[in-house]
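We read letters as residues; the fold follows as tokens. Both lines appear below.
***
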Amino acid sequence: MKKLLASLLALSPALALAATSHWSVDPSHSQVGFAVKHLVISNVRGEFTKYQGQVALDEADVAKSTVEASIDVSSISTKNADRDAHLKSPDFFDAARYPAMTFKSTKVRKAGPDKLEVTGDLTLHGVTRPVVLDVATTPEVKGMYGETRRGFAATTKISRKEFGLTWNKAVEAGPAVGDEVAIALDLEAVKDQPKTAAK
């Protein structure tokens, strides 16, 4: 019995590691999108095309999971070159001074079947504020080349003014650009393969 207990204790760190799976976002099958009101009558939608993200998911204890992401602000695209240039300028993102926005989770909790609530620090335009992501997950599936994949769909809303993005212009209908920004992430992630020890 003592030998069995000793063996289980020796295996416990490995079992704990095995419970955590690591995932990297695949940008070619993902989208980091946003929408903001224009003239209070319609939504302008855009996306960032260059980003990276990592998820450490502990299925046994979700609270031990972590999420980190970094987005290249200069990769913004709203399908209008003049508008994109304005958004990169000091009036908005000031991409030359603040080239990246980042997110780092501080708390993860289960919010229902295949749902998570991820709280974290979003740093944008030199300002860091807490945000909460509502996340829906999918089961694992095998990809075309034997790799393991799963999906994460996340949404949240932020106030751009709280991050120092205060530029606006008054028009007859009201503010030209809304304050609330709706963020929608459709992410496909690939499970990292464990590193094999060198022989």
